[in-house]
Amino acid sequence: MPAAIEAKGIVKRYASGLTAVRGISFQVPEGTCFGILGPNGAGKTTTIRMSYGFIPLTAGDILVLGRSITAEPRLVKSLLGVCPQEDNLDPDFSPREGLAAYGRYFGMAAQDCARRADELLDFVGLSEKASANVRDLSGGMKRRLAFARALVHNPRVLVLDEPTTGMDPQARHLVWDKVRQLKHEGVTVLLTTHYMEEAAGLCDEILLMDAGLILDQGAPGTWSAATWGRIRSRPRTPPACPTAVPPTWRTSS
Ligand SMILES: Nc1ncnc2c1ncn2[C@@H]1O[C@H](COP(=O)(O)OP(=O)(O)OP(=O)(O)O)[C@@H](O)[C@H]1O
Ligand SMILES: [Mg+2]
């Protein structure tokens, strides 16, 4: 299977002098879900931000569907749907206007944008808030809208940074079901999460990061109890499990 995302020796050193990502490499095969786990400050968001060109790489490169984010940032951005960790929704637009504007940015026809916006608002349960002020949405509603926005232009690759953090269980299940459906349709998903059950239930492969380095990598079902234990030692409140958990997970509890 060809790699939809390939990180090649990526390094990020911030202006402060801190090196948040220290020369890591990984490949995400097309049509799979790849999870990055790790404690606060591990470098997950820094890695994600480099992957969609939000911050420049200090060294190395990231290829998306074979195209370099450093050499062809505009092209790569057009291939990606992104749900960032931080709230960057435009407060000047209502949810419907914001989604439609996003579609137009990606070159969709105006009528398609309007239809797609309404379809996605319905999907994430925000139809009643379609014309609301974005500032008046709850935190979980903003996360739903950010997730919907990532899907507007039907991207072939999705990059989701803690997509379900702050969502209620119903919304989480919507996201999980959607990720599975998109994967089935051939979409590639790169996500970060602090929820081990989410990673185990959705991801074909998980990369465990700490201090900017890869500690471990593999399919969740193949991970040893010791590996799961290393992650579990720094848990956040986990959501309900989306699917049956792998056997190694059960033995670790
Ligand atoms: N703009 C920045 N300037 C300087 N340092 C930064 C910047 N952004 C992040 N960092 C630092 O880089 C390190 C990695 O941060 P990052 O946001 O990538 O972690 P993370 O794994 O996403 O953590 P979390 O689980 O809390 O989201 C941290 O030490 C953080 O303080
Ligand atoms: Mg982060």
Topology:
Layout: E1 3-13, E2 19-29, E3 33-37, H1 44-51, E4 59-64, E5 67-68, H2 73-79, E6 80-83, H3 95-105, H4 110-123, H5 139-151, E7 157-161, H6 169-184, E8 188-192, H7 196-202, E9 205-210, E10 213-218, H8 225-232, H9 247-252
Parallel strand pairs: 3-8, 3-9, 6-7, 7-8
Antiparallel strand pairs: 1-2, 1-4, 4-5, 9-10
Helix pairs in contact: 3-4, 4-5
Magnesium ion binds at residues 44-45, 85, 161.
Primary descriptors:
disordered C terminus; 4-stranded antiparallel β-sheet; alpha/beta; 6-stranded mixed β-sheet; 9 helices; Rossmann fold; binds magnesium ion; 253 residues; 24% strand; single chain; binds adenosine-5'-triphosphate
Brief description of this entry?
It is built from nine helices and ten strands. It is α/β, with parallel strands linked by helices and 253 residues long.
Structure description:
The protein is α/β, with parallel strands linked by helices and 253 residues long. The protein has a single domain, classed as P-loop containing nucleotide triphosphate hydrolases (Rossmann fold, 3-Layer(aba) Sandwich). It contains nine helices and ten strands. The strands form two sheets. Strands 6-7-8-3-9-10 form a six-stranded mixed beta sheet, with helices on both faces. Strand 9 and strand 10 form a beta hairpin. The radius of gyration is 18 Å and the shape is globular. The two termini are 34 Å apart. Bound molecules: adenosine-5'-triphosphate and magnesium ion.
